[in-house]
């Protein structure tokens, strides 16, 4: 039976960068959509777009395509976005999948969930760049894509785009805790993911906020969409199935 997946990218990414993963899922007979969120599209005003606008763009995408009964997958920053969208339209979501993603509580922003050195770094970059932040290459190479060789690290870095910093600083509003939601929830954890330091881990620090959830783990860094898309696709389907 065909399932419908919506893959929501992380910061600095676009939906297009999720396509190699999507293609592997499609080979198993499923339908996969890879939208690009407001703030990461060509010509978007990075100074004006926050979390609310990004989440609304995803909600609009689901409505315009009349998508329902979906497996909604969020990567990293995408966890903030899917958390808001399920709050807006829970009736369209069959299962939430957080892939090394932020799991917020009401009133938190993404920066509340990151270590101080990241906040200091991005505060400075945004102040000099009109509200847009670029990820410095050394951080990308050592912390985000540590399982790649130098060639892949450089090639993938060249595909990233400036990200609107307001999406990191705007608090989320949630009508109820994610743990209270009735649909299925999964957390997909890459064991070598050190985009968040292991002293402030993705799992279990953030995953346990989902309440009852399915844990799926695999080998790899924060950027498995570049380094091992087929492995990631297999694990997404494991996390997304009933």
Short description:
The protein has 242 residues and is an alpha/beta fold. The chain has 9 helices and 8 strands.
- In the residues, how many domains can be counted? 1
CATH superfamily grouping: Alpha/Beta hydrolase fold, catalytic domain
Largest beta-sheet details: 6 strands, parallel
Shape: globular
Low-confidence stretches: none
Rg over C-alpha atoms, rounded to the nearest angstrom: 16 Å
Largest sheet: spatial strand order: 2-1-3-4-7-8
Report the oligomer: single chain
Mind telling me the CATH class?
Alpha Beta
The CATH topology corresponds to Rossmann fold
Mean pLDDT score, rounded?
Answer: 98
N- to C-terminal distance: 11 Å
Give me the strand/helix succession: EHEHEHEHEHHEHEEHH
Strand share of the residues?
A: 15-25%
Question: Explain this structure to me?
Answer:
With 242 residues, the protein is an alpha/beta fold. The protein has helices spanning 19-26, 51-64, 78-88, 116-128, 137-144, 150-157, 166-169, 224-227, 229-240; strands at residues 4-8, 31-33, 70-75, 93-99, 132-133, 163-164, 184-190, 214-218. The chain has a six-stranded parallel sheet with strand order 2-1-3-4-7-8, with helices on both faces. The chain has a two-stranded antiparallel sheet with strand order 5-6. α1 (19-26) crosses α9 and α2 crosses α3 (78-88). The mean pLDDT is 98. Keywords: Hydrolase. GO terms for molecular function: hydrolase activity. It comes from Hylemonella gracilis.
